[in-house]
Amino acid sequence: MKTKIRELRKQRKLSQEELAEAVGTTRQTITSIEVGKYTASLPLAYKIARYFGLTIEEVFDFSDLEDGLWNNSNRN
Amino acid sequence: MKTKIRELRKQRKLSQEELAEAVGTTRQTITSIEVGKYTASLPLAYKIARYFGLTIEEVFDFSDLEDGLWNNSNRN
DNA sequence: ATTTTTTGCAAAGCATGCTTGACATTTTTT
DNA sequence: AAAAAATGTCAAGCATGCTTTGCAAAAAAT
After folding, report:
1. Chain B neighbors of A65, CB-CB under 8 A
2. I want to staple B59 with a disulfide (CB 3.0 to 4.6 A). Which of B9, B13, B21, B49 is the partner?
């Protein structure tokens, strides 16, 4: 999952540590998410987005999962 | 975590099973999320929201985690 | 150039999300 | 009323998210 976290963080000149504290998590968690090691949970994604004054969709890039969802083969 | 999933699902007269298939998960997962047994992952939350043509923030209610985030004590 | 801060990474362990299968109860259909 | 479909739940097990400690390398500050 791609994110704009690093970009937003640098714009505001925050360290990973500062962001982590602000959203109630650890530095390693922020690193892992920025680096794509794993995907944030919904609550954490929300806190991060909200911290930057943005929506989840504005911070996280979901283009990797938009497949096969909209081919209409599952509609009634 | 509260959600509007059941509400949206019933509006469109879908069963849990149908929604589950549409978003690539199982009936039990939908039940558990609707009933509040646990919180959806970010990817699943996205797929569900997108299925209904809404944003994550429109489907999931985060009012339970907006605490202590905006008291300015963590700003530079 | 040396020191300090920031970042990447790894392993162990715990917490949470999800699947599968199965059964009981409720709701809808006939 | 009887049959069928939909929902809630439980347990076991696997997958993923997160924390903690600790170390190494890169970047920023002095």
Report:
1. 43, 46-47
2. B49
pLDDT in tens, B6-39: 999 999 999 999 999 999 999 999 999 999 999 9
Least confident window among A31-35, A50-54, B33-37, B71-75:
B71-75
Q: Which domains does chain A have, with CATH numbers?
A: 2-58 (1.10.260.40)
Is-contact A75 B52, C-beta < 8 A?
Answer: no
Token match 């992952």: residue?
B41
- A 5-64 residues, CB < 7 A, strand D: 24-29, 32-33, 38-41, 43-44
CB contact under 8 Å between A69 and B60, yes or no, is no
Structural contact between residues A65 and B47, judged by C-beta atoms closer than 8 angstroms: yes
Mind telling me how many Å the CA of A34 is from chain B's nearest CA?
15
- The pTM score is 0.88
Count Cβ neighbours within 10 Å for each residue of A27-63 and write b for 16 or more, e otherwise.
Answer: eebbeebbeeeebbbbbbbbbbbbbbeeebbebbebe
